[in-house]
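Re: folding output
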Amino acid sequence: MNVPILSQAPRIVVLGSLNMDLVLRVPHMPRAGETMLGQSLSQVPGGKGGNQAVSCARQGAAVSLLSCVGEDAYADQLLAGLVADHIDVQHVQRSARDATGVAVISVDDSAQNQIVVVPGANLRLQVTEQVLRPLLQDADYVVLQFETPLEEVDQALRSARAEGCKTVLNPSPVQPLPDAWWPRIDVLVVNEAEAAQLSGSPVDSPESAARAARWLQAKGVGQVVVTLGSQGAVCCDQAADGAEAAAHWHRAPQVQAVDTTAAGDTFLGALTVQLAAGAHLDEATQWAIRAAAICVTRAGAQPSIPFHAEVATRTEASPWSPV
């Protein structure tokens, strides 16, 4: 796999959520009305914004994070962890009105998870052009998701276009996108459920993922990646005028999964850094799959996210095929 060596750190701005994850290990997901004995309870730094920022940083990027936390112990723990990963947190705001966001995550013996998020201070995040535009002037990409107010995502998309900074959007939790947003998105990263809801068509195979990716790209998006869990991912690159966009299915290596929490965030961070370093979309997708494959073999959100050197040591074949 011909992946660029990072001669200098790509610059990534992440606008997103910070949560403290309360992780419950359970034998299986409880049914309605069922009481069960859990196996353990742990506190783990998380939130999609925090996870994606950590993934970008551990892949070698210089990262600035825009987020909002409360004035509580969870906030102090989250910020300390980000600083340990050399992430710029000077633009993380503090809310005196709301507690830091919390996510309650149940992980069963098959490594699947269910997540309930209480956003808390994340919904208080407010960014201005005066803050955003100087950051985006020097950035290669800005990374966005939907665990913060959509007004702030809109502001970031508009500011990024004005400053010539490329955008990566992970529309999670998924909801319809305004028509004006589509052409402002350089890279759209979605899982099966998100791709299905946005495209209006079921996504349960690489073939259906490719159809959804082409539909999404036709809305004006530059590049689309649909992640398929243990099946890998389908990426759809920009096509020449009048030609059908080329979609490729990249398979994932077989691993013994322990916890799938943060796998998607790990994938997105690794993908973004490789694109910023000049990798082709196919190469970046293969690299991101390997990073996510390492992540799922470990417990917790941010503790499970691998470093660049760890991904570089993986030597599994990365078969792919057009779809």
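--- second protein (sequence, then structure) ---
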Amino acid sequence: MTLEWKYSTDAVDWEELSALYRAAPLGDKKAAHLQKVFGNSLFKCFVYEGSKLVAAGRALADGGDCSYICDIAVLPSHQGTGLGKQIVGYLVERSRGHKKIILYAVPGREPFYRKFGFLRMKTAMAIFENQQQQLERGYLSET
């Protein structure tokens, strides 16, 4: 079946998007939260197979200085097909012209993003809602 790409939040079923993140698996992101963050993101895409949402991604961007690519999710049935690569490629291309394009990856997925030109930042730091959990998951280091 043909994939259809949409770039607007107009017809998004936020509960379906929430289920996509759980299935991907990228955590439990509530529908209202996703509606807010995608609504505040300059660039976004949703990929459908028929009427079923199979992938999504967004870039929180300010139009000039910084674009942060995040929330790339692909249903397990569509992982390994190149769809995630297409989404990242689309968001990187839309983000061109910003002074910096940033993302953080699931630990171990860095080689995937290097193919797009991303390099590890030596000075990046973060404060997470649940610091201990992110330390345990490998997203943060105290050293």
